[in-house]
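re: that chain from earlier
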Amino acid sequence: MTDRENPCQGVRKNKETPHDYSANDVVWKAVYQKGEIELQEAMDLAYLTDQRPADVRLIRVDDVEGVYLRVGQGKTSKKIRILMEVDAQKNSLSLLIERIVARPKKINSGYLIVNKSGKKVSERMLCQRWDDARSKAVAEAIERWRPGLGPENCRFSVPGYPTEGSI
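^ sequence. v structure.
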């Protein structure tokens, strides 16, 4: 204990700028088309569940419980259920999961987002696939100079993952 003044008093916290870029359809499709199958499936699953990439990567086949997909959110520790059927009709999420499960694999790891051999995709693997697809999309955009895919869209990144390069 001390009777002196707090040395941290008056020190300002670092201000963070929130992520404010949202990719348009042209940019999203360009990166999607250049991505490997596991990246495309992760993008589809993230889009349809509105979950973070880190949470999507950890979804398992046995998280499907009847007409629900159970998802545990790492950042908030919340557990949610996402409906996969409406009026006894399968929705896009249900059809995507069926397609992912049906994809041929050498081994069955139990995870939805897996590489070609069936092993769970790590955070680094997914990030690398993202960077590769993004770089290919940028290179093609520069080569063809497609409006909407140029340098003005260099900020396209996955929130929560470090970014290298552009788009």
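The mean pLDDT is 84.
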